[in-house]
Design goal:
5-stranded parallel beta sheet; Rossmann fold; 11 helices; pyruvate; D-isomer_2-hydroxyacid_DH; NADP; 7-stranded parallel beta sheet; 2 domains; NAD binding
Length: 313
C-alpha cells in the first residue's frame, strides 16, 4: 500500500499522521499553499482522503479528485461530507462512531456541573483574590434536575445514563419515539424544552436539525433553564442564544461547539453564566488515537478489498 496516494486535509493528530506515513504515500494538503496548482498536479493519483469537519468534502472537492475511492473521516459527524454526491460518484465514506461516545458524554455532564455550579467562575474568583473579601455566591444544584435530550442516539443515551446517576429525570426528542426506551418522549423540541431544566443538544447536524434550538425553544426553556451543546454549533441559532443569555431569558449555557468555529461571539466572553470550550468533546489522547485507528483500519480494509469497519456510504 506504500504506493497508494492518500491525502490528509488538515493536521489533526500526530499519531494518525505517523501511522498513515507507515502504510501509504501520505500527502499533506497544508504543505501546498497554492491549492489549484496542487490539484492540477496530484488529482489523478489520490485514491483516499482523510478529512474532518474543518475541511469539507463537498462537490467541488470531490470533483477535483477524479481517482478518489474513499473518504475516511476523522469524526463521527458527517455534516461536512456531501454523502449523496459521494454515493452518486461511487466514493465510499467512513467515520469514527462509538469510540468517542464516552468522552463526549463525560464532557456533557462536566458542562452541566460546571455551568450550574459555577465552577469556572469559582476558579476565577479564587485566582483573582476575591475570596478574601467574602464568600462566593450560591449556585444551582444539579442532582435531581430534569434533563431533556435532543437526539437519543449513542451519545444521547450515554448522557442519559450518566445523568440518571445524579437522580435526574430524563426526557427526549428525536425524529420518532424509541419504543425500547423508558424515558419520556416529547414530539417537539419546544415541548421538551418547556418540561426540562437542562436542555442538551446531542443529535446529528442535518438540514432538518440546523437551528433546531431557536428563539421559541429558548423561551420555552425559560429563565431558570440551561442549554448544553455538545452537538454542532449550527444546531443553535447563535444570535438568538446570545440575546437570550444577555437578556436573562435563560439561566445559562455550556457550549463546546459554535456556529462559526473557531470564532465565538464576543458578547459571550463577559458572561459568567456561560462556559465556553474549544470543541474538545472527543479531545483525549485515548479517544483521538482510537479514532485514528478506525480511520487507518477503514483505509486498509478498502485497499485490501475487505469489508469496511464503519461504512456510511
Amino acid at each position: 500500500m506504500e504506493n497508494i496516494d492518500v491525502l490528509i486535509t488538515t493536521p489533526v493528530n500526530p499519531y494518525l499522521e505517523q501511522e498513515l506515513d507507515k502504510r501509504f504515500n501520505l500527502i499533506r494538503l497544508w504543505n501546498y499553499p497554492q491549492k489549484q496548482e496542487f490539484f492540477k498536479n496530484h488529482s489523478d493519483s489520490i485514491r483516499g482522503v482523510v478529512n474532518n469537519p474543518w475541511h469539507p468534502a463537498d462537490r467541488e472537492f470531490i470533483d477535483s479528485l477524479p481517482a478518489l475511492e474513499i473518504v475516511s473521516s476523522y469524526s463521527v459527524g458527517l455534516d461536512h461530507v456531501d454523502l449523496g454526491y459521494c454515493k452518486g460518484k461511487g466514493v465510499k465514506v467512513t467515520n469514527t462512531p462509538d469510540v468517542l461516545t464516552e468522552d463526549v458524554a463525560d464532557l456533557a455532564i462536566g458542562l452541566m456541573l460546571t455551568t450550574l455550579r459555577g465552577i469556572s467562575e469559582c476558579d476565577r474568583y479564587v485566582r483573582s483574590g476575591l475570596w478574601k473579601k467574602g464568600d462566593f455566591k450560591l449556585t444551582t444544584k444539579f442532582s435531581g434536575k430534569k434533563v431533556g435530550i435532543i437526539g437519543l442516539g449513542r451519545i444521547g443515551t450515554a448522557i442519559a445514563k450518566r445523568a440518571e446517576a445524579f437522580n435526574c429525570p430524563i426526557s427526549y426528542y428525536s425524529r420518532s419515539e424509541k419504543p425500547e426506551s423508558n424515558y419520556k418522549y416529547f414530539p417537539s423540541v419546544v415541548e421538551l424544552a418547556s418540561h426540562c431544566d437542562i436542555l442538551v443538544v446531542a443529535c446529528p447536524l442535518t438540514e432538518q436539525t440546523r437551528h433546531i434550538v431557536n428563539r421559541e425553544v429558548l423561551d420555552a426553556l425559560g429563565p431558570k433553564g440551561f442549554l448544553i451543546n455538545i452537538g454542532r454549533g449550527p444546531h443553535v441559532d447563535e444570535p438568538e442564544l446570545v440575546a437570550a443569555l444577555v437578556e436573562g431569558r435563560i439561566a445559562g449555557a455550556g457550549l463546546d461547539v459554535f456556529e462559526n468555529e473557531p470564532h465565538v461571539p464576543e458578547e459571550l466572553f463577559g458572561l459568567d453564566n456561560v462556559v465556553l470550550l474549544p470543541h474538545v468533546g472527543s479531545g483525549t489522547v485515548e479517544t483521538r488515537n482510537a479514532m485514528a485507528d478506525l480511520v487507518i483500519g477503514n483505509l486498509e480494509a478498502h485497499f485490501s478489498k475487505k469489508p469496511l469497519l464503519t461504512p456510511v456510504v
